[in-house]
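Quick one - first record:
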Amino acid sequence: MTGSRWPDARQPGWIPHLVTRLGQQAPAFFSRFLPPDEGGRPSAVLILFGPGAQGGEDVVLTERSHSMRSHAGQVSFPGGAIDPGDSGPVSAALREAQEEVGLDPAGVRVVAELPALYLPPSNFVVTPVLAWWARPAPISVVDHLEVARVLRAPLSELTDPARRFTVTHPSGFAGPAFDIDGLLVWGFTAGLLSKVIELAGLERPWDVADRRPLPPDLVGSSDRRDRPAPSPVFPEGTS
């Protein structure tokens, strides 16, 4: 994990705490799958927190277009493959966020890069980029072929025990999930959010025994190559 800290009166106290905790974790804390020696398709996602409109903080999420060939309708962080013109994961994550939701990269301060995580079925090596947005500007869908909706999910809702449960996939996958603004957040995205919330010291006790099957429409939206493991990020005690 790499990153930097800086004095910022608008930055909540849990962010420097999170950065410190991130630096203490081995990559295996985030995933049971580490990038193979031969590598894979490099990509990056942006985990962007900022001050919420109603107080507290929120994080930027997108609902993928329902017409996409794979993962249609699923909730994800802005991001995508690292292009030849990108200088690295940070550059790629910011560029993708600009292309998907109209984010102005100049207003974003990168906090840290998490360890690269490997998705074996799709051969993606994903680097999550954690960032803070001190003065959020308007964002919205730029390309409706890729993104159906942009939302800023309040951290208060992500940490609400009533909105957290375990989702199960017919393949046998079980992992954390969130019910946010009528959308189901699960798989890779929910796994990362769960780990970040835990390390930030913001987690509240929730019922991990509350297990709910993945809705059929989301099962059908998954690319067959991504079965039986839609996400390499699992909480303790799940598989």
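second record:
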Amino acid sequence: MSMLDIDALDVWFGRDRGRVDAVRQASFIAAAGESFGLVGESGSGKSTILRAITGLAPTWSGKIAVKGHAIGQRRPKAFYKQVQMVFQDPYASLHPRHSVDAVLGETLHLHGFRDIDARVVKLLDDVGLGQKFRFRYPHQLSGGQRQRVAIARALAPEPELLLLDEPTSALDVSVQAEILNLLADLRQEHGLTYLMVSHDLSVVGHMCDRLAVMKDGEIVEIMDVAALRAMKATHPYSQHLLQASV
């Protein structure tokens, strides 16, 4: 079953002569339970696709469908129970004056959950932090711990699809593997589908089943991870990326 269906997606910013076409005619399908990667150099349109899905990039055309239900310009509340996003910078995505308990509790409250205390504890356990971090503030946490809180917040509504926007690129190298392994475990435990943006092919090779290569706002190739590992790209730009990553 298809979890995410993107067809002929165009995303742009500005109008008339000031218009910038960030994504052009992007099409791919991510199956339920799959981890699908978007790779390419900075400015290729990867993160813009994620922002279009969530409504953060409001000027778009084409088709975005989640579990067969097409998304319009306005997202119903139910959409955000089904789809959540983990951002690149865990410090910027957390309110500096809100404790971990407040961040998670507010999210649970907004989505209509009642047994909030128990759920906060369970979320912290799920991301490997535990109760001792419950009443700490973002400035009291390391980068990896902040990203674990951001992941816990994304998990709070019990989504089926997680959008991961370079979730480890702002972290120390020593912490990156821990977060990637956590994400891989959570995907298995919760039956999640991932759409993951990364410029790092080794990360995509570790995390994803298939990937789309983007260049200048367009998808130039879709391949499975076996082809990536075997260095068997067909498009010249994909070959260039693979060679550059060696």
